[in-house]
Specification:
The chain has 2 domains: 203 residues, no CATH class; 192 residues, no CATH class. It contains 16 helices and 10 strands. Helix 2 crosses helix 12, helix 10 crosses helix 12 and helix 10 packs parallel to helix 15. The longest helix has 40 residues.
């Protein structure tokens, strides 16, 4: 198969060892540096995606995909709102709720917490709390019995166990001649859950929906209705559609909006990590510049002979452009393959490293997870490969231009 003149010469130069092995060594180091940089970037981005997915899943095991809330956290006529939401094809389950703030006390221990009034049967359809119980059950939250289910850390901080009593102090009290007096109610601890998310394990208390309505003086009203969707990624779209069919005083709130700051922080951290690790590829690209400059100096006589045989400066430039791009392409392909291999098998590779070194990188008691999560995404790999190839192309511009500027007579003067 006949190759274009420039590709043929570039192919020969790429395979050539040169007069000394030093140029080939620098070129090999450049290729290896690009491969390592690309692999490191893919692995880190995959792990960050894994952590984001892990935290998101744990958050959504407690939070709703969409919440329909009323003004001032008070929704009147909520059964009609619930029926309207249930008619949407994406909604698979609904559950009314009451939410409020309270202080929980037992003896000298006092902890602030978010109190959520729930219907245990309906709640089981929209969240995973019922499957994360360490003791007791959500079914114990019966109307009029004033039972409470606490997060594991909240129960530990209050030093309570199943069967103990805690006092809920509601800041919305009643005005008397002596001033504002908060409302107090004693509850029995009937369950403890652990979701693996510090915000909920240390600051969430669940009580019966009817008890919460009495406690917060809502009568038959609730704070809102929680929705579970068939596809959580369509939460924003579904919330926008529901806003068109619900009364104007009902506000649909999707989970990305509820956690906008957290997800924005994660995306910013991911972008910064991408920029920082791209510097590894940039350093390898600088090595590629050095290797090509030395290759041009070594091939000055060959370039001069090609020029005397009729090769144009543009052809000479293309020869070294192809040589540099091939080096960068090989390094990028090796890096993508190596990074993907590690990212997809990190659940096997990390335990092997931990076993060999004799310690664990992630202690489950500290991080709530004992395995390093990884979520490789094709879009990230394409971006990394594209940036690597762009840097490789930029690295060849100066050496190839220098080769094209070689004067035949001057280059052959001392040959």
């Amino acid at each position: 198969m006949r190759l274009p003149f420039e590709l043929f010469v570039a192919y020969r130069y790429t395979r050539s060892r040169g007069r000394s092995g030093f140029v080939s060594f620098i070129s090999g180091v450049s290729m290896l540096g690009i491969a390592l940089g690309v692999a490191a970037l893919i692995i880190v981005l995959s792990v960050m995606n894994g952590f984001q997915k892990e935290v998101r899943d744990r958050m959504l095991s407690v939070l709703a995909h969409v919440e329909l809330v009323g003004p001032g956290n008070r929704l009147s006529g909520w059964p009609a709102v619930q029926q309207t939401a249930q008619r949407h094809p994406e909604v698979v389950a609904t559950a009314p709720f009451v939410v409020g703030q309270a202080l929980l006390s037992r003896g000298e221990q006092v902890q602030g917490a978010a109190v959520r009034g729930i219907d245990p049967i309906a709640e089981a359809a929209v969240s995973d709390i019922g499957r994360s119980m360490l003791g007791g059950s959500l079914g114990s939250l019966k109307a009029g019995e004033f039972n409470v289910v606490l997060g594991r850390e909240l129960a530990r901080n209050l030093d309570v166990r199943l069967g103990d009593k805690v006092t809920l102090i509601i800041p919305q009290g009643q005005v008397t001649a002596a001033g504002m007096i908060p409302r107090l109610k004693q509850f029995n601890v009937s369950g403890v859950f652990e979701m693996g998310h510090a915000e909920f394990d240390s600051g969430l208390a669940l009580i019966s929906l009817a008890d919460a309505q009495i406690l917060y003086r809502l009568g038959g009203d609730v704070s809102g209705v929680r929705l579970k969707l068939a596809d959580l990624h369509r939460a924003t779209e579904v919330a926008r559609q529901l806003a068109l069919t619900l009364p104007p005083d009902v506000l649909p709130v999707d989970w990305p909006s509820q956690n906008r700051n957290w997800f924005a922080a994660v995306q910013t951290e991911k972008r910064m990590m991408f920029i920082i690790l791209t510097l590894i590829i940039a350093v390898a690209a600088f090595n590629l510049v050095s290797s090509l400059v030395m290759a041009v100096n070594e091939k000055r006589a060959d370039i001069a002979i090609l020029r005397t045989l009729g090769a144009t400066p543009s052809s000479i430039r293309q020869i070294f452009l192809v040589q540099g791009v091939v080096t960068g392409c090989i390094g990028t392909v090796l890096g993508v393959a190596g990074g993907a291999l590690v990212a997809f098998n990190i659940d096997v590779i990390l335990p092997a490293i931990e076993h060999a070194l004799g310690f664990k990188f992630l202690a489950s008691g500290v991080y709530y997870i004992s395995e390093l999560p990884s979520d490789p995404q094709l879009a990230d790999m394409v971006w990394v490969a594209g940036v690597s190839m762009l840097l490789s192309v930029l690295a060849t511009l100066y050496p190839s231009s220098r080769a094209a500027a070689t004067q035949p007579a001057e280059a052959l003067r001392y040959e």
